Amino acid sequence: MTFSNAQRTWIVGCTLVIILVVIGLGLSHYKTLQRFDLLIYDLILPLHSPGMSDQVVIIAIDDASIHELGRWPWSRQRHAELLNKISSLSPKAVAIDLIFSESENSLTADQSLAEAIDKNARTVLVVAPVKETPNSLISERLPIPILATAAAALGHVDVELDIDGLNRHFYLHAGIADPHWPS
């Protein structure tokens, strides 16, 4: 059977399309295309990003902090002392990215932290999504009432990680059934 040039071109074209579709499906199955897309995104984003503001200061709990202030977890009294030191510098806002969802053994420590939060008047505490068991529904974990009442606001810390374990986006608002917690 002989084919005309037009038929050969059509057969070669269809064969190439089929090969490319099979390769594309194979790559997407292994998340290769998605990883490549994320790599391109990571390379392009710094070119268009304004960068981090010098008005934002992150105070992290690191190994040096633990070495100097003692083993983790710290008491609410320690957090109150640290918040009072930060407040003495008159920050425009303080966000504490720790979940204070259970009372401490010492009621005075909880009270001290609540007073420091209230005194600062610009402290935001976190609300976190939790799933108690693999079969349970997601619920919201809020700070204990004495701290939630003292806080200027509550905000969510719900982040979705990409397939490579990095966070590249976040929700401006989140919540169960209704996205009412700001980020």
UniProtKB/TrEMBL annotation:
Is Transmembrane among this UniProt entry's keywords?
yes
Q: Where is the CHASE2 domain?
A: 33-182
Q: Please provide the record's keywords in A-Z order.
A: Membrane, Transmembrane, Transmembrane helix
Report whether Phosphoprotein shows up as a keyword of the record. no
InterPro entries linked to this entry: CHASE2
Q: Where are the transmembrane segments?
A: 6-27
> What name does this protein carry?
CHASE2 domain-containing protein
Q: Which organism is it from?
A: marine sediment metagenome
Q: What is the lineage of its organism?
A: unclassified sequences, metagenomes, ecological metagenomes
